[in-house]
Amino acid sequence: MPKRSNGTFGKPLNTKPSSSVGTPRKLRSGRDPKTNAYRLIHGHADRWKDLYVDRLGDFLLIQSPQPLTDPQLEAAIKWKGTLKIKGVYYKKLNRMVQRSNTTSASPRIIMGLEAPDEFEVMENGLKYRLSLKQGYSTGLFLDMRENRQRILSNHIEPGFAVFNLPPGTATVLNAFSYTCSFSVCAARTGATTINLDLSRKYLDWGRENFLLNQVNPKDHDFIYGDALEWMKRLAKRGERHDLVILDPPTFSRSKQSGVFLAKRDYSSLTKAAAPLVRNGGMLLACCNAAGLSNAKFREEVRRGIRGSGRKIVEAFSAIQPPDFPVTKTEPAYLKASWLRLD
Ligand SMILES: C[S@@+](CC[C@H](N)C(=O)[O-])C[C@H]1O[C@@H](n2cnc3c(N)ncnc32)[C@H](O)[C@@H]1O
């Protein structure tokens, strides 16, 4: 049995307020001087059904499945003025992202100045490189801000640290690392990171994010390849890490391990990752598949860990940050479980 009365691991995802990095009001008004990338409008919860607006530094990114209506455009003009935004982009919300090519998936400018090909935003005092010209994703998943902060501050909740060893000695395996934002936070605490991704472009982008934050990427590993395949290989070598991060896409296909479906395969993924966590180390298991309920996700994660012969001794389930509010109409989609393993 976990020591921490299950943290929130055995309860519904949104029953416990997370140790918030900033109140929504603060974030939304842009008055947190350390963060200028956040969700401004989150659909129904903000009384704008099907409308999602992100502030990305000097730019706004508006997403909707439909072309913008006049009231939405008027509101965008107002937000642009209030937040002193340089340019406003629109992207059609597409649930079939993997079928879109880069150009058709990229947002298009609808107001003001075009963004440079690459620009920087700030989050919790760290810098990240973003682009509105590289397809569907911009380079930073804003809904993970609080989990990044948990790594950066080595604080999950009172009495529950990410790393329980002297600063600078931890090692982190970040599978599905994308642009390595989790690793940037870990590296800033002095940890050494290994980043695994099936995209060379994203790993290079990750190296740039390291440099932006005065961390030498040469002191870290960036491995191009299939995460499942590599985790098996690393486990065979006897590697153990203080933190292993799993944040796979909902769907992926690789030559080595074929199709990965988060909904179907999360327990095998956890089973492959658990042996890489040192005794007393942490597994961060994340999933944004809306079709996988939180209860089912936790069941799958537990099953994988049990199957690997490991035990959860401390657990915490993070909720969506305040700028991604959860309502009955738009239930939580993000699942992130912090699990200390023995
Ligand atoms: C949801 S993103 C990860 C987001 C990241 N953890 C973050 O917070 O910035 C998924 C990433 O997994 C990568 N990916 C997809 N299939 C993969 C596979 N089989 N092995 C390794 N990486 C994979 C994609 O290239 C993408 O960068």
Order of helices and strands: HEEEHEHEEEHEHEHEHEEEHEHEE
Question: Ends: how far apart?
Answer: 11 Å
Helicity, in percent?
Answer: 25-40%
Number of strands: 16
The domain tally reads: 2
Give the name of the CATH architecture of the largest domain.
Answer: 3-Layer(aba) Sandwich
Order of strands in the sheet with most strands: 10-9-8-11-14-16-15
How many helix segments?
Answer: 9
Assign an overall shape. globular
Q: Tell me the CATH topology of the largest domain.
A: Rossmann fold
CATH class descriptor name of the largest domain: Alpha Beta
Strand content: 25-35%
Supply Rg.
19 Å
Described by strand count, sense and barrel closure, the largest sheet is: 7 strands, mixed
Draw up the topology in text.
Elements: H1 24-28, E1 37-42, E2 52-56, E3 59-64, H2 70-82, E4 87-92, H3 102-105, E5 108-112, E6 119-123, E7 126-130, H4 145-153, E8 171-175, H5 181-188, E9 192-197, H6 200-212, E10 221-224, H7 227-236, E11 241-246, E12 251-254, E13 258-261, H8 262-273, E14 277-287, H9 294-307, E15 312-318, E16 335-341
Parallel strand pairs: 3-4, 8-9, 8-11, 9-10, 11-14
Antiparallel strand pairs: 1-2, 2-3, 4-5, 6-7, 12-13, 14-16, 15-16
Helix pairs in contact: 4-5, 8-9
The structure holds S-adenosylmethionine.
Overview of the molecule:
The longest helix has 14 residues, at 294-307. The relative contact order is 0.14. With 342 residues, the chain is α/β, with parallel strands linked by helices. The chain contains 9 helices and 16 strands. The protein folds into 2 domains: 26-116, RNA methyltransferase domain (HRMD) like (Transcription Regulator spoIIAA, 2-Layer Sandwich); 142-341, Vaccinia Virus protein VP39 (Rossmann fold), CATH 3.40.50.150. The strands form 4 sheets. The chain has a 7-stranded mixed sheet, with helices on both faces. Helices cover 26% and strands 27% of the residues. It starts with 23 loop residues before the first helix and ends with a strand. Bound molecules: S-adenosylmethionine. S-adenosylmethionine (SAM) binds at residues 141, 144, 176, 178-179, 181-182, 196-199, 202, 226-227, 247-249, 252, 254, 260.
